[in-house]
Amino acid sequence: MATSTDIIVRHFRQILIWPLQLMPYETTGQGSTMGRHWMLMLEAAAAGSPWQPRPTEFDGDPAEFQERHYREFVTFLPYVQRFLYGEGRSNDLNAKSFGQSPLHVFRRNDVRKVVMMFKDGAVHHFTVAHIDLYFFYDIDVVILAFEIQGDNLPLKRVQDALFRFGRAFPAQWDENQTAASCLRKVAWLGEDGEVLASSDYEDRATYLSHLGRYRAPKMAAHWEYLLNPLVLHHSAATGALRYRQIEYHRMPILAYVAVDDPFALSEEDFYRLGMVTRPGDGDALPYTRKVFEEFEQQCCYDRFWIPERKNEATSTRMMCNGHAFVLVGKHGNSFFSDPYTGALGQFRHQYFLLTLIAHFHKAALLMFSDRLAVALANLNLQDAQSIRQFKRETRHLQEAFLRFNQRYWFREVSNQIISDQIYQMLHKNLEVLRLHQDVRDSIQSMSQYLENDDLRRQADTVVRLTVVTIFGLIGTTVTGFLGMNLFSLAEQSVWDRTVYFFIVFITMLILTFVTVAKSKGFAEFLDAVADDRIGWSAKLAILLKAWKRKKV
Q1: DSSP string, 312-362
Q2: Contact status, residue 84 vs residue 354, Cβ threshold 8 Å
Q3: Do residue 324 and residue 466 come from a single domain?
Q4: Residues 144 and 269 in one domain
Q5: What distances in angstroms separate CA 383 from CA 35, 301, 379, 551, 552, one per listed residue?
Q6: Is 237 left (phi over 0), alpha (psi -120 to 50) or beta?
Q7: Complete DSSP assignment for 161-218
Q8: Which of 337, 369, 400 is the endpoint of a domain?
Q9: Could you say which of 307, 337, 367 is where a domain stops?
């Protein structure tokens, strides 16, 4: 039986899914705009950016529509289809459709290969399948999808590439100043083999100084180059399209691993692939039996994996821990390797979209949570402007969350058993449902706070009006009793009557404002008057206290 060292991966694919939070930008006369960053990308594309709008399968000649696209489309339920692909026109030319998909995808084709230098000095070239940016209407989230492929690689090299490639920045450095868990070097190659950008993981001083200055980590140079015209928000770079980290610096991944004999892989190999850990040294198992059992129960989908049978029909294993979705199977088996009707085609399309939706859900909810935290952090109860800004931001987030629930939130995406169960595994391992509940509760709590605050203000207004009415009623009753007037001014000149009018008007205006200003104290005095348990001396003391109160 072959050992892990001897196993060769005949075909390997890795798709990085990197969610990022987009920062609001200012539009002329409209304030900050949410979820419209793709419009700036269109402007950049027109100005010559390598990121260009990606046409969909529905933009071409309908006669050339392929079965692969058809199979992908019908995998999903109708409301998910409208999210992913939009809705076309009906036969009735006067009818209005729901419009285009809320997804806006941009692709760049200048990066053709990825060069990876590993810790042991080995260098491997991987072909770039595609690099896409996914923008979402009305949501300040963007997702980078980066797919690479390679052939005839040692299994341990594949494990190492999965573990080290998708790193936005180093977490620490070794004694020799190399990034601990990153590749030694990563470079993007163009059409003619020229180096477009390379990593700077070894530049420890720059990473440390950036964190000390901005209180946020610096992104590696090759990722900064790839995302341009998007720029890191916590940096000196200029640009309207600004992003910030929203999750862990390790990017979520999908992996496709085709080997000659999947049954030759050990439990340790499957665990390291499924949990995306670094390759092991030697054949000794570093994990306990309980670890493998928990892994199989929580992260393995073994509908097509029965190792006892040693049959091609039962040689495909799917693993999903939330961070990674890994597909392992037999190379040459059409069920697994066919790029159109096999698992490879499903991996690149259906399973990719399932994973994209799940990670988009998590990223969007984390974005809402971050916005709520910022709104609360900026709230100053002693500043009226801060309170008004807090109310506007809370209501804005409440409206945006409502639209997110109606447009993007799916508990089920497919009636096909495999797709549905994988989607449920993704949601479960990412704890998306719990996060959704937490964000909803937080928004409802803040909304309830605003409602209670409005009710309190209304109650205060009612108290003031009641006090003014009571005190005004005394003067009105006295001066207007039986329609009698204290002064006979009918015979006076117009000038005298005008003077009297303004004297009374100004006096009543002052009395009214004084009554409103002291309405809280007067309200307490009126409550004390109505309370038989309080003596008149105490009641008068409360009245005097009302005049001594300082303005809030």
Answers
A1: GGGB-EEEE-SSEEEEEEETT-HHHH-TTTSHHHHIIIIIHHHHHHHHHHH
A2: no
A3: no
A4: yes
A5: 29, 55, 8, 15, 12
A6: beta
A7: HHHHSSBSS-S-B-TTSSBSSS-SEEEEE-TTS-EEEE--TT-HHHHHHHHHHHSSPP
A8: 337
A9: 337
157 and 303 belong to one structural domain: yes
The angle subtended at Cα 250 by Cα 249 and Cα 256, nearest 5°, is 160
Question: Which of 141, 128, 146, 130 shows the shortest CA–CA distance to 54?
Answer: 130
Distance CA 80, CA 419 (A): 13
Give me the domain span that covers residue 309: 8-56+101-337
Q: For the chain, what is the domain count?
A: 2
Burial (CB count within 10 angstroms: exposed 0-12, middle 13-18, buried 19+), residue 81: middle
pLDDT given for residue 316 in this prediction: 95
Instruction: Read off the pLDDT of residues 383-424 as tens digits, 9 standing for 90 and up.
Output: 878 888 888 888 888 889 999 999 999 999 999 999 999 999
Q: d(Cα 67, Cα 77) in Å, to the nearest integer? A: 18
138 falls within a domain: yes
Q: What angle do CA 416, 135, 171 make, to 5 degrees?
A: 95
CA distance 495 to 345: 95
Is pTM beyond 0.85? Reply is no
Residue 62 DSSP one-character state: G
The predicted-structure confidence for 304-348, as pLDDT tens digits, reads as follows 999 988 898 899 999 999 899 999 999 999 999 999 889 999 999
For residue 404, being part of any structural domain is answered with no
pLDDT interval class at 230 (50, 70, 90): very high
Per the listing, tokens 């963007």 go with 142
Predicted confidence at residue 516, as pLDDT, reads 66
